[in-house]
Amino acid sequence: MRNLLIFITKYNAFFLFLIFEIASLIIYVKYNSFQKASVINSTNQITGGLYARADELKGYLSLREVNDQLARENAALRNQLKSSKYVDTVARKTVIDTIYKQQYEYIAAKVINNSINKRNNYLTIDRGSRDGIEKGMGVINANGVVGKVAFVGEHLAIVQSLLHKDSRVSGMLAYNKEIGYLQWGDDMNPHKALLVDVSNNAQPKVGEPVLTSDLSLFPAGIPLGKVSRLKAKGTGFFLNLEVALAVNFSKLEYVDVVVNKFAKEQAALEGQEKKDE
């Protein structure tokens, strides 16, 4: 306290000048309408700018919460799609009773690790067995097919990316429904893949969409990409088509894991079929 008093006494002239200067400015602004309006306008601009920056910071800090909410809502909306249901049709004489029942469900997940520059690429998601994730489930995002679940822990799961030498997805041309298999090319381009073994009667067109077929583990009609180049196979009986992938794997943030309620039943039946061969 003593040091403060000594400091004020030493610089009392400066403090008196400062007090008189502030008082004169207040009187000058208060009793002159033009200067008063100018000060108010400048103050409003400054405070408005500060409020805008504070709002931007608040919005940025809440982005993760907003994205998580949007991902959950997106999964819920996918659950309501007609393509997520199967048709149970019972015919009795001339009466057909058609009821849509749920076949696919979707679990929203966040990508917490991802690779695109290897021959075999994987991504990690923040959902595991306690969330209902199982090995072999398909994974998609808002743009198209991402891959399938390869390894499952209690809290996390590893997804085999479409950018993997062993990834094969049954796909079809959107216009004539000709079926082939989508696989990643040997050139390791993260934006391209090949739709192979397409009948040469297909007559595909550059720019034609390529979608998942009924033979894949995904709901039919999920985008895989678009035909970017036509490539004839050596035998001439089949075509290999270069496909520009629908998903940008370098920017994956949120995905949906596809839960096919008939997957186990289908696997069991197909297992019996193989035993009989």
List keywords for this structure.
277 residues, alpha+beta, Thrombin, subunit H, 6-stranded antiparallel barrel
- Nearest-angstrom radius of gyration? 32 Å
Class by SSE composition: alpha+beta
Level-1 CATH class name of the domain at 80-262: Mainly Beta
Distance between the termini: 98 Å
Total of helices: 5
Which percent bin holds the helix content? 25-40%
Q: What's the multimeric state?
A: single chain
Mean pLDDT: 77
CATH architectural label of the domain at 80-262: Beta Barrel
Q: Flag low-confidence runs.
A: 86-100
Q: Give the strand content.
A: 35-45%
The CATH homologous superfamily of the domain at 80-262: Rod shape-determining protein MreC, domain 1
The count of β-strands is 14
H and E order: HHHHEEEEEEEEEEEEEEH
User: Largest sheet, described in full?
Assistant: 6 strands, antiparallel, barrel
Q: Given the C-alpha coordinates, what overall shape results?
A: elongated
CATH topology tier name of the domain at 80-262: Thrombin, subunit H
Q: Order of strands across the biggest sheet?
A: 3-4-7-6-5-14
Transmembrane segments: 12-31
Protein name: Cell shape-determining protein MreC
Domain Rod shape-determining protein MreC beta-barrel core: 111-258
Family: Belongs to the MreC family.
